Structure formats: C-alpha cells, structure tokens
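hiii so um. not sure if this is the right channel but i have a protein structure encoded as tokens and i wanna go backwards to a sequence. like what aa goes where. can anyone help
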C-alpha cells in the first residue's frame, strides 16, 4: 500500500505516532490537535474500533477512498469530495521575490503556541479544514500579519515516510489576491524539500481557485478522497 492511500492511519502509525490515541484498529489525534481519525480499513471491525475510541456525541473526520456506507451507531454530520494532490517535481515559483504582485510583502513570521488563538480565529473564518488549538504542534507554520493581525498562513500537518502535507493554507478575505498564500506555500514547500521529502496536500474538489494555484505550483491530482465527519450516536 502506498503511504498516501490511508494517509491519516499511516501518519499515526509512523512519523506522528506520538500523537496517536488508539483502540484496536482505530487511531486518532487528540481532539485539540485535530479531529482527523482513521482505521485500518472501513470494515465492521474498523467502525467497532472507532466506537471504542470516540465517546458518545463525539465526532471523527475520516478520509475514505469510497463513499461512506451507513453504519449502526453513527450519523453523518457533513461530507464532501476532496482531491489529494502531490508535487510532481516540476516547475514552480520557488522564490518569494519572483512571485508576482507581492513586492511589498510584509515579513513572514514563524507561528507557535502564542499565536494559536489567532490561527484558530483565521481558520474559523476561512475554513481550510479541521484546525484546533494544538494543530500547530504537527509541524512548521508560517504567517503574515498586517497591523498586528494574522491575515494569512500555511503550514505542515500530516507526515508519513517520504511525504509531508502542506495544510491550513488560508488568507483573510480582506487581503485576498495579494499573493500571500502562494508565498507562504513556497516557503513551506522549500522546508519540506530540504528534508528530502515530497509535498502533498488536500483540497475541496469544488475549490477551483485554490486548485489553480496548486497546479501552478506543480501539484497534480493523485486521487479523489471522500471526507466524512461522523458523530457517534448516544449509546
């Protein structure tokens, strides 16, 4: 199996195993890190294992390779199609100075625990995907501030052998179109490549604007993913 086929499970089994909360064939990150959850396979045992890991009323976000099939004890909160895209090693604008329209780019800053409230606020506004108060612990995160306010960021999330995910790419609507996301992505990609790894990412299938940016940065679609948020029913 390719390490990106069941990437959340693989991350929690290898490079990010220190974050794993486990029960039989299910694993998840601590809720304050992210709601991403996985099992070895979407079988009755897999969902039973998931029930042993998620409390009644709790939620789990799964990345499935096929549409979700209704399971006893679970209710769908939301679901959508996403693309898993992988950098193909082709041409990309790998210097901030060469990025069009950002000649007056504010300083790029490294984000950490002190920035967590601002990071959560920005992701709640822009909804790039699950983001918690401790998501920044998963990797390097960079941001751009204007007048002290965090207006754009990008970082690293899932890590598996040979690959690291570029994630939480978002820009405040009032600052869209200034090239901030592109510059931050390039910086994160450079960091990943310096470690000899390949960048990959996930994006909603209908987010055409983001997909166009990722394609310009030499990402190609590897597979379609069925993201599903489930809520465990009261037992």
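sure thing!! here u go:
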């Amino acid at each position: 199996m390719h390490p990106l086929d069941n990437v959340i499970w693989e991350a929690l089994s290898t490079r990010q195993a220190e974050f794993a909360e486990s029960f039989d064939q299910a694993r998840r990150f601590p809720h304050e890190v992210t709601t991403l959850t996985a099992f070895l396979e979407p079988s009755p045992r897999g969902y039973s294992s998931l029930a042993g890991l998620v409390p009644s009323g709790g939620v789990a976000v799964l990345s499935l390779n096929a549409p979700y099939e209704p399971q006893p004890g679970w209710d769908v909160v939301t679901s959508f199609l996403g693309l898993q895209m992988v950098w193909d090693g082709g041409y990309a604008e790998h210097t901030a100075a060469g990025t069009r329209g950002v000649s007056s780019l504010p300083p790029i800053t490294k984000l950490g625990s002190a920035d967590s409230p601002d990071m959560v606020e920005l992701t709640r506004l822009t909804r790039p995907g699950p983001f918690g108060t401790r998501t920044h612990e998963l990797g390097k995160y960079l941001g751009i501030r204007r007048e002290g306010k965090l207006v754009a960021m990008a970082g690293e999330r899932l890590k598996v052998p040979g690959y690291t995910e570029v994630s939480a790419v978002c820009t405040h609507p009032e600052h869209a179109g200034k090239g901030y996301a592109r510059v931050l992505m390039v910086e994160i990609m450079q960091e990943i490549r310096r470690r000899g790894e390949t960048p990959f990412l996930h994006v909603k299938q209908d987010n055409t604007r983001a997909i166009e940016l990722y394609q310009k940065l030499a990402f190609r679609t590897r597979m379609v993913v069925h993201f599903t948020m489930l809520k465990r029913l009261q037992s």
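oh and The chain has two domains: 7-82+226-232, 84-223.
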